[in-house]
Amino acid sequence: MTELGKRLKEAREAKDFSLDDLQRVTKIQKRYLIGIEEGSYDMMPGKFYVRAFIKQYCEAVGLQPEVIFEEYKEEIPAAYDDEIPVSLSRVQTRKGVSASSSKALDVIPKILIAVFVIAVLVAVWVFVQTKVADNASNADTSNKEPVAVDQKDLPDEESADGKDTEQKDSGEKDDSKAGEEKDNNDEEKKEQSLEAVKTEGTVTTYELKDTDQFNLELAAKGDAWVAVYNSKDEVLFQGMLYKDDKKDFDFTEDQQAYLVLGNAANTDINVNGKALEYKIPTETVRQDIVIQYKPVESQ
Question: Is residue 150 included in any domain, yes or no?
């Protein structure tokens, strides 16, 4: 038993209190009262209870707790423990639950108000959409009403017949005009004609018609000697052409082109972009080609 325990026990006995009596007065379990007198503080729930029980013990037996704590401070735990009593924990837990419930109750009315406002807005929107649809339907119905036509505005039969006659005459004139234009177009689209009209020995004469130009091109497929003369028997070219060589001549202002070919097989002749067909087979190496030009104006 500690010195503090002896002091407390003596004070209890001086009051003629048994441990059972002290238990009824302090509401402290008897085993804890015995532990205080014997200095067995480890059996207590915590240091908080040690100091609290000693204080109640002192007050019950007529001692000053502050004086006892000061005199026996080395025996009594120096500070309160941070542990929270179970009873206090339960109280706080209940308070927390109550606070949470209170907050939930505060939020519920706000939620109900928000739901009500949303419902009102939806109802207004549906009403507006229905109204707009009805107006559109009425507008379509009004647009489909028959339009009255005044008979005075209609042309009489005589004027209609007159217009039909005028239109018919106009149509005939248009057809006639279209026919004339078609004939003119046919004449314009008429292709040039290049035909062999005479062959004497190695000389072939061609006639060029139905065109307003006479462009001549000589293209060599191999070595070939050529000579080119105009209607005045003037030499425009005379010499060798080699493979892929080309010579161009414009006889549009002339009436005839005279060609002397040293190797017909190696010489292609193009008139206005179209190939001239040899009347004499090209096996005849040396050939003379005469092209007589008859422009469209002179035909």
Answer: no
Alpha carbons 209 and 296: distance in angstroms, whole number: 7
Please check whether residue 139 lies inside any domain of the structure. no
Q: Which of 26, 32, 45 is nearest to 5 (CA)?
A: 32
Q: What whole-number distance in Å separates Cα of residue 266 and Cα of residue 264?
A: 5
Query: Tens-digit pLDDT profile for the chain (299 aa)?
Result: 789 989 999 999 999 999 999 999 999 999 999 999 998 888 888 777 888 999 999 999 999 999 999 999 888 876 554 444 444 444 444 545 455 566 767 788 889 999 999 999 999 999 998 888 877 766 655 555 555 545 555 455 444 455 555 555 655 666 666 666 656 555 555 789 999 999 999 999 999 999 999 999 999 999 999 999 999 999 999 999 999 999 999 999 999 999 999 999 999 999 999 999 999 998 999 999 999 999 987 66
Domain boundary among 79, 108, 137: 108
Decide if 279 contacts 207 (C-beta within 8 A): no
- Would 128 be classed as within a structural domain? no
Indicate whether 4 belongs to any domain: yes
Collapse the DSSP code of 48 into the 3-class scheme (helix H, G, I; strand E, B; otherwise coil) and give the result.
helix
**pTM recorded for the entire structure:** 0.40
Pairwise CA distance, residues 284 & 103, whole Å: 121
Q: What angle do helix axes 47-61 and 3-14 make, rounded to 10 degrees?
A: 30
Query: What CATH number is given to the structural domain containing 79?
Result: 1.10.260.40
Please count the structural domains in the chain.
Answer: 2
Write out the residue range of the structural domain in which residue 22 sits.
1-108
**Last residue of one domain, picked from the residues 108, 131, 164:** 108
